[in-house]
Write a structure and sequence with these properties.
Layout (H helix, E strand, L loop, with lengths): L4 E5 L6 E5 L23 E2 L5 H7 L3 E7 L4 H16 L4 E7 L4 H6 L7 E6 L2 E7 L5 H13 L4
Parallel strand pairs: 3-5, 4-5
Antiparallel strand pairs: 1-2, 4-6, 6-7
Length: 152
């Protein structure tokens, strides 16, 4: 796979589609069933019924953030995570989990602090960060390095 192409999974027929990053804004179609490939342009709120499927079927890097409305650090880092999701659309999918609304998901992923950042690659959890990093650039660098790392 070249650096400017990425993989997207069709949610209709589950086939993988390789396409250039430049075509993301053109509503790309699945090569097999011709359905529109969905590419999140920002963070997606977690839906417990679909979460396992969302994790397993996203072929690129997935960042799951566990936040709460009362957490000051969450309010600081939410705009950073949103801008990462927008800038790296197609390569990074961000799923946000509100621990107050979904305590079962927080318990299942052993979340004791907010914010907690969990990274998945090809459906497998590879690394997590419990608590806020020291500064915003540390989080950005951490996520960028995980997106660009190929061997998991």
């Amino acid at each position: 796979m070249t650096d400017d192409s990425l993989l997207l999974r069709c949610i209709t027929c589950f086939s993988l589609n390789r396409l250039p990053e430049s075509r993301l804004k053109q509503r790309p179609l699945c090569g097999k069933c011709k359905a529109v490939l969905e590419v999140p342009a920002g963070p997606v709120a977690a839906v417990p019924a679909n979460l396992d499927r969302d994790i397993a079927y996203w072929p690129e890097t997935l960042l799951m953030t566990f936040t709460s409305r009362w957490c000051v650090y969450c309010k600081i880092y939410n705009p950073v995570v949103s801008s990462l999701a927008e800038e790296r659309s197609g390569r990074l999918k961000v799923i946000t989990v509100d621990v107050d609304a979904h305590p079962d998901l927080a318990k299942r992923h052993n979340v004791t602090k907010t914010p907690t950042f969990v990274v998945f690659k090809n459906g497998t959890m590879v690394v997590r960060m419990d608590g806020a990093p020291k500064d915003k650039n540390e989080l950005i660098t951490w996520v960028e390095n995980l997106i660009n790392y190929q061997s998991y």
